[in-house]
Structure to design on (634 residues):
C-alpha cells in the first residue's frame, strides 16, 4: 500500500506545484503577515521618536509672552514663527501643533487673572497628539513655576498650595508596545498553516468531484485510506513550507535596522525560530486534514472555498480573544490544538522557556486529531452520496 | 467474465435498479441498451464497486465486487460517463498514475503506458496537458487509462457519447478488437447504431428491469418487428428516451 500512497502523493504534489496561481497566492500570504507586522513595528519606532525627540512648535503672538517663550526655549522646544491660516496648516498636518497667545494675555497675566493661551493640534494624528501632550505638560510646568514664584513673593509656602503632588511614572516602554505588535506573529503563523495548503486540499477533494475524476479514481484497486493519506501529505508539506517561509521573512523583517532601533529584545533568535517551527509542525498536519474533511462535502471548488474561508477564522480566534482579554487562560487550554499552540507561541516570544512535556502532549493530541480527520475523510470518499455528487 | 445476479438498488425513494440479471461472456461485446433512467449507469457503477447493491450481487471473473473489491477491480477496466481528467497532467502522466494505482512500477509500468498510448494513436497527445484537449481527445485518454493494466474485463459507459464521427469509428474499432482478443466487454448505450455495429449480445433494460436478452437476431424475433429499433420500442413498450 506504501507504493500506491506515494503514487497518489506524487501526483497531488505535481498537480499542486503546477497550479501557479494558487501557489503564488500562498507565497504572497506568507510574505504579507510579516510585512504587516514590520509596518506596525516601524510605526512604533516613529511614535517613539516623536515621544522623545525635540518638539517643534509654532507660536503666534510670542512677543506678548516673552517669559513663556524663553521657558519653552529652555525646555528645548524649537519655536517657529507664525504663518498664515494656522488652523488649516494644523489640520493638514503641515504643523504638528501651534500655540496662540491672544492680545489680552499680557493684561491678564500682569493682573494675576488666569491668562489664556490656545493650543492647536489635530487629535486624529498620532504625532499631533504626542506633541500636544508634551507641550501641555511644559505649559503646566511653566504655570506651576509662575504660581510658586508669586506665592513666594507673598510669603506663602508653595507647598501649601499643592496639597497633593502627583508623580506620573509611565512604565509603558517602546519594548512593551513593540511586543503588542509582535503578538500578531503567532496569528499569522497559524493562519499560514491553513492558507498555504488550502487550494491543494480543495483541488484534491471538491475538485475531484467537480471535474468528475473521483469516479475513475475510486475504480482503482486501492483502499480509500490510501487515497486520503496520499492527498493529505503533500498538502501538509505545503503548510510546512508556508510556515517556514513566514518565519524566515519575519526574521528578516525583525532584523531590519529600523526595527532594531526600537531597542527591543524581541528579535527572532534561531532558538525561537526553531521552537516556533517545531510547535507548528503538528498543526501543519492538522490544518489540511480538517480542511479535507470539510471540502469533501463540497460539490465544487467554489463551494469548498466558501467553507474553508470560514474555517480560517478558527486559527485567528484564540489569538484575538486572548489579546482582548475576552477569555482568561486556563491550564487545560494548553492541551487543546490551535488554542494550545497560540498560548505556547506567545510564551516562547515572551522569552519564557517552553514546557517540554506540555508541548509534547499538545503535539500528540494535535496529530491524533489530524489522523482522525484523515480517517473520517477516507470513509467519506467511499460514501455513495459523495461518489455520485448528491451530498 | 461478468455476472450480475438479482441486482437491486434504490436511492431514497427512487428505485434505480429493480431486478437486473445478466451474464457477459469473454470474447464478446455485451450491450446494455435502454432509455435514459433505465438503470444502465447504476448497474455499471455497482459492477465498478462504486455503489453497494441493496440486493443481489455482481461478479467479475468470479470475484464479488462488494466482498473482494480489490480482486474484482484489478480484473476490471472502467470508462465512466465523464472523462474526469486532471487539467494540469499530461496524457502520459494520467496513464502512469492509473498504472501505479494498479500496482505497476518500473519497466512494466513504462511498457504498459507505451502500449496503452499506442492503442488509440495518441503519440501526439502523450506530452500535452489535458486542459487543452478536445472532447474526443479526452475520451481517448480516459479509455487508454481504463486499459492501462490490460484488464480481462472492460466496462464502458456510453463510450462514444459526444464524439465526432472519426473518433466514434476509432473507439468502435478498438472495442471490437478488445473482444476479438478474448476480453469481456460490457458497454451501455442508448444509441441504436452502436448496438448493431458492435454488440454480440444485447441486454435491454427498462425501468430497472431486464426486458429482453439475446443476440441481435434473437431480439428481432422476440420483438416481432422488422428493424431493431421497432423491436426495441415493442419490447420496452414506449418510445421515451430513444435516439
Amino acid at each position: 500500500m506504501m507504493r500506491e500512497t506515494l503514487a497518489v502523493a506524487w501526483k497531488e504534489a505535481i498537480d499542486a506545484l503546477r497550479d501557479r496561481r494558487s501557489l503564488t497566492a500562498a507565497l504572497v500570504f506568507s510574505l504579507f503577515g510579516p510585512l504587516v507586522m514590520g509596518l506596525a513595528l516601524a510605526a512604533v519606532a516613529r511614535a517613539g521618536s516623536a515621544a522623545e525627540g525635540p518638539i517643534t512648535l509654532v507660536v503666534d503672538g510670542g512677543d506678548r509672552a516673552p517669559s513663556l517663550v524663553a521657558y519653552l526655549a529652555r525646555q528645548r522646544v524649537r519655536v517657529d514663527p507664525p504663518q498664515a491660516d494656522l488652523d488649516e496648516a494644523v489640520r493638514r498636518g503641515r504643523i504638528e501643533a501651534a500655540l496662540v497667545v491672544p492680545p489680552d494675555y499680557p493684561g491678564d497675566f500682569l493682573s494675576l487673572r488666569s491668562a489664556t493661551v490656545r493650543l492647536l493640534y489635530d487629535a486624529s494624528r498620532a504625532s499631533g497628539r504626542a506633541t500636544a501632550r508634551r507641550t501641555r505638560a511644559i505649559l503646566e510646568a511653566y504655570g506651576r513655576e509662575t504660581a510658586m514664584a508669586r506665592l513666594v513673593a507673598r510669603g506663602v509656602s508653595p507647598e501649601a498650595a499643592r496639597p497633593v503632588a502627583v508623580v506620573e511614572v509611565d512604565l509603558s516602554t517602546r519594548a512593551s508596545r513593540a511586543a503588542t505588535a509582535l503578538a500578531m506573529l503567532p496569528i499569522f503563523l497559524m493562519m499560514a498553516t491553513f492558507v498555504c495548503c488550502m487550494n491543494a486540499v480543495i483541488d484534491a477533494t471538491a475538485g475531484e468531484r467537480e471535474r468528475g475524476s473521483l469516479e475513475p479514481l475510486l475504480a482503482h484497486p486501492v483502499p480509500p485510506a490510501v487515497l486520503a493519506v496520499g492527498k493529505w501529505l503533500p498538502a501538509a508539506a505545503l503548510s510546512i513550507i508556508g510556515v517556514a517561509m513566514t518565519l524566515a521573512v519575519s526574521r528578516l523583517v525583525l532584523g531590519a535596522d529600523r526595527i532594531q532601533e526600537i531597542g527591543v529584545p524581541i528579535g527572532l533568535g534561531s532558538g525561537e525560530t526553531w521552537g516556533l517551527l517545531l510547535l507548528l509542525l503538528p498543526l501543519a498536519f492538522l490544518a489540511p486534514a480538517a480542511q479535507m474533511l470539510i471540502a469533501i462535502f463540497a460539490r465544487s471548488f467554489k463551494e469548498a472555498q466558501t467553507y474553508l474561508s470560514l474555517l480560517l477564522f478558527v486559527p485567528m480566534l484564540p489569538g484575538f480573544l486572548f489579546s482582548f482579554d475576552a477569555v482568561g487562560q486556563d491550564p487545560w487550554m494548553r492541551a487543546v490544538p490551535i488554542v494550545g499552540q497560540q498560548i505556547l507561541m506567545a510564551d516562547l516570544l515572551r522569552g519564557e522557556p517552553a514546557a517540554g512535556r506540555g508541548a509534547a502532549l499538545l503535539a500528540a493530541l494535535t496529530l491524533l486529531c489530524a489522523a482522525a480527520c484523515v480517517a473520517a475523510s477516507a470513509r467519506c470518499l467511499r460514501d455513495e452520496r459523495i461518489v455520485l455528487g448528491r451530498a | 467474465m461478468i455476472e450480475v445476479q438479482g441486482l437491486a438498488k434504490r436511492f431514497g425513494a427512487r428505485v434505480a435498479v429493480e431486478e437486473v440479471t445478466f451474464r457477459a461472456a469473454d470474447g464478446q461485446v455485451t450491450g446494455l441498451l435502454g432509455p435514459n433512467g433505465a438503470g444502465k449507469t447504476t448497474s455499471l457503477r455497482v459492477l465498478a464497486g462504486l455503489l453497494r447493491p441493496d440486493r443481489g450481487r455482481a461478479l467479475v471473473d468470479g470475484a464479488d465486487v462488494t466482498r473482494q473489491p480489490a480482486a474484482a477491480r484489478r480484473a476490471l477496466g472502467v470508462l465512466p460517463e465523464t472523462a474526469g481528467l486532471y487539467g494540469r497532467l499530461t496524457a502520459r502522466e494520467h496513464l502512469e498514475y492509473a498504472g501505479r494505482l494498479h500496482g505497476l512500477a518500473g519497466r512494466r509500468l513504462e511498457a504498459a503506458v507505451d502500449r496503452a498510448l499506442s492503442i488509440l494513436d495518441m503519440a501526439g497527445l502523450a506530452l500535452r496537458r489535458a486542459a487543452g484537449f478536445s472532447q474526443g481527445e479526452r475520451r481517448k485518454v480516459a479509455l487508454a487509462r481504463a486499459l492501462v493494466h490490460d484488464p480481462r474485463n472492460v466496462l464502458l459507459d456510453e463510450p462514444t457519447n459526444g464524439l465526432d464521427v472519426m473518433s466514434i469509428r476509432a473507439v468502435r474499432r478498438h472495442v471490437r478488437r478488445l473482444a476479438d482478443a478474448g476480453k469481456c466487454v460490457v458497454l451501455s448505450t442508448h444509441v441504436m447504431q452502436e448496438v448493431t455495429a458492435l454488440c454480440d449480445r444485447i441486454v435491454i433494460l427498462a425501468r430497472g428491469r431486464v426486458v429482453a436478452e439475446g443476440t441481435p437476431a434473437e431480439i428481432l424475433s422476440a420483438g416481432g418487428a422488422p428493424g431493431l429499433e421497432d423491436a426495441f420500442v415493442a419490447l420496452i413498450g414506449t418510445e421515451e428516451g430513444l435516439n
About this structure: Chain A touches chain B at residues 3-4, 7-8, 11, 14-15, 18-19, 211-223, 384, 387-388, 390 (CB under 8 Å). Chain A has two domains: 2-44+175-387, 53-169. The longest strand of chain A covers residues 55-60.
